[in-house]
Amino acid sequence: MAISRRQVLKSAAGLAMLQQMSRLEALAAPLAGNDYRALVCIFMFGGNDGNNTVVPTDAAGYADYLAARGSSSAGGLALSQSSLVPLNGVPYGLHASLAPLQPIWNAGKLAIQFNVGTLNRPMSKADYAVLSNRPQSLFSHPHQQAQWESAISNGPSRSGWGGRIADLVGNGGTLPLIISTGGNALFTVGNTTTPLAIPNSGGMSLSGFGGTPASNAMYQAMNQLRALDEGNELHKAAVGTMNGAVNASAALTNALGGNSSITSLFNGQNNSLAKQLMQVARIIEARQSLGQNRQIFFVSHGGYDTHSNHLVRHADLLNQLGPALKSFYDALNQLGALNQVTTFTQADFGRTLKPASGGGSDHAWGNHHLVMGGAVKGGTYGTFPKLLLGGPDDISREGRWLPTTSVQQYGATLASWFGVPAAALPTVFPGLGNFPRTNLGFMA
Predict the structure, then answer these.
(1) Contact of 94 with 380, CB cutoff 8 Å
(2) Are 186 and 160 in contact (CB under 8 A)?
(3) What would be one Pfam family of this protein (predicted)?
(4) What does the pLDDT look like over 4-14, one tens digit per residue?
(5) 109 domain residue, yes or no
(6) Is 224 a domain residue?
(7) What is the pTM of this model?
(8) How far apart are CA 124 and CA 393, in angstroms?
């Protein structure tokens, strides 16, 4: 029987797909061990001002910073040198609101990765002049958030890099592998993985069920509907999603229902970030009873689009971030999970070194990020930009840093520690091959 060209192509495509599926299953196998590891992403929505998060403390570096940012007494945004929290061994200091992180730095469990941003490939200022070389829609909140969450900068993506890691690993426990306490997020969406979004406090019981005969009858009716087999894929998918939500609800309500010794570590912190991190810590506390050996969490912290009253607003935000991170660190230590959990920051972009009108700061590009955990090799990584307006690292004359490290490299370093094999990294980070280094060195 003659075989048509179309049949050959269909067979070849099918074979390639099966080979790819087998390859991913084989690559995921090393992640199925009994050891526990978790990644916790804190996304700073609006674009954190890295220029006032990490400040040079040496004479020349601080002089450049002060000249460009301007003294706060004269309407500028520069922090006073005496207010900075010193970091042992390096000529940089943290914003005063991040003082709770100093003991973590001194313990060698906090890293700062300099000047990270969305990139298609390594770029020079000459490359930047060619529009096609740039990531799409630079300086746009939704586009840059999506590119940080997806690690894809040359077009839209329907999945995030956290979700694509989850695709490789699979479920492996009572709960979905990837959980968001900050609402729906592209970061958590895989090609085959469905994330779980939960409230930032309390359990996850289904609202309206239980407690009265009428509500119990409603619950039984819902279960009967879930058991129906309508024979179509849409219905099966809907039932599968509902079953997963009901099962996760029951497991989480049971796991988080009792008292926990770690909640007192967050006393006095009533902001959303602290509540989310406490919820994440509670889930990690229940990791064994839930049967989880790999987990990824997405935590949201908003308000960083500081176009006005920047100094006050940014200090308030970091005054939430610093204590919440310290409490989370202490909780993990108390739970014996410090070495198994790595927490890291992401943001839309940095902010201009040059002040904007109204005591604010405008959208920029490259930014500094924090990585915290027992497996972190503390210190500074990457290249700190020269703080000169219009200087070698500024793609404008307002202090917008051309990134020297890509989101792909940053994410790949974390993914490698999590257990993603080197051969599978391009599946999670499609543009990683454009960069010379896939591991930035800040993880043990």
Answers:
(1) no
(2) yes
(3) DUF1501
(4) 544 544 444 44
(5) yes
(6) no
(7) 0.88
(8) 9
